[in-house]
Amino acid sequence: MTVSTSEKLPLAWNVIIYMATIHLVALFAFLPSNFSWGAVGLFFVLYWLTACIGITLGFHRLVSHRSFETPKWLEYLLVLCGSLACQGGPIQWVGLHRVHHKFSDHDGDPHDSNKGFWWSHMGWMFVQNPANQLVPKYTKDIQNDRFYQFCDKYFIPIQVALGLLLFWWGGWSFVVWGIFLRLVVVFHVTWFVNSATHKFGYVSHDSNDHSRNCWWVAVLTFGEGWHNNHHAYQYSARHGLQWWEVDLTWITIKTLSLFGLAKNIKLAPTTVPTK
After folding, report:
1. Would residue 120 count as lying in a domain?
2. Quick one: which of 224, 245, 150, 185 has its CA closest to 50?
3. Can you tell me the distance from the alpha carbon of 52 to that of 6, in angstroms, rounded to the nearest whole number?
4. From CA 51, how far away is CA 56, in angstroms rounded?
5. Phi, psi dihedrals of residue 123, rounded to the nearest 5°
6. Which of 136, 200, 204, 213 is surrounded by the most beta carbons within 10 Å?
7. For residue 259, what is the DSSP state?
8. Which DSSP symbol is given to 199?
């Protein structure tokens, strides 16, 4: 079943208010009173933990595509880190991502790049997107898991708990940098994979969509910018297929495998055809 997104859709005011609030509070990071090198260091640590370990490694390559396997305790830890990105719960995130791959740049894709950069970057979230209706169909493997259900329902309270911990540790500067500014940066870095890598870069493989390999998105997202490679070989744990396509998340997976924590790793063919 394909859900059309061609008609004018009602606004999702809860999402608009949620995003506007986080972005506005993040501006307080630019007040001199909220600056400290400790807060900056915390920002980068939590950026890596949520963007690389949580979203890229956990939500995307492990859960969405099952490109490798881990012990269940590690899977849950990665899912928790992904929930700290506050991009919705894991069930919703994974479901929408799988819908995207099913209909990439065609009718039914929740962030179809044919509708413009703004839509594919963030506009698609500000409406009651029909793709949300397909999430249960594409998440049958995780929707009954109680840990996934917990993270899906309570990802905001989990973030609040982290914020209280950071306030106790370092005051408001830690909260502003470690929660709000970090969330905004991780939001847009993740969204660049939906928008920029369907507009900028080079094409190596036929993938029946507009996906491209964009080096600067790969830098920001720890390897997700090699998006045309990914769409051509969705199951592959490695996205950077050429020697110059640095993929830090793939290096992370290889490191986990050395300790027996990543197994049954799926890869693109050794010799991959290029255009």
Report:
1. yes
2. 185
3. 33
4. 6
5. -60, -30
6. 213
7. T
8. T
Asked whether residue 225 is assigned to any structural domain, the reply reads no
Would you say 97 and 60 are in contact if contact means Cβ atoms under 8 Å apart?
yes
**Do the beta carbons of residue 213 and residue 204 sit within 8 Å?**
yes
Distance separating alpha carbons of residues 236 and 232, to the nearest angstrom? 9
One-character DSSP codes across 129-157: -GGGGGHHHH-TTTTT-HHHHHHHHHHHH
Q: What is the per-residue pLDDT for 274? A: 63
Q: How many domains does the chain have?
A: 1
pTM of the model: 0.94
Q: Which residues of 213-251 are buried (b: 16+ CB within 10 A; e: fewer)?
A: bbbebbebbbbbbbbbbbbbbbebbbbbbeeebbbbbbe
Check residues 4 and 110 and name the one with the higher pLDDT: 110
Q: Hunting for tokens 């880190």 — which residue is that? A: 81
Residue type, position 214, single letter: C
pLDDT tier for residue 1 given thresholds of 50, 70 and 90: very low
The alpha carbon of 98 is separated from its chain's Cα centroid by a whole number of angstroms, namely 12
**Cβ contacts of 37 within 8 Å, gap of 6 or more:** none
- Here the tokens at position 149 are 């259900």
Which position has the token pair 């069930």? Answer: 91
Q: How far is CA 178 from the centre of its chain?
A: 18
Q: How far apart are CA 58 and CA 258, in angstroms?
A: 18
Q: State both tokens at 125.
A: 């979230």
The domain containing residue 81 runs over which residues? 13-201
Asked, for residue 41, whether it belongs to a domain, the answer is yes
Structure tokens at 239: 């996205």
Pick from 202, 205, 201: which is nearest to 192 by CA? 201
Tell me the C-alpha distance between 91 and 76, whole Å: 13
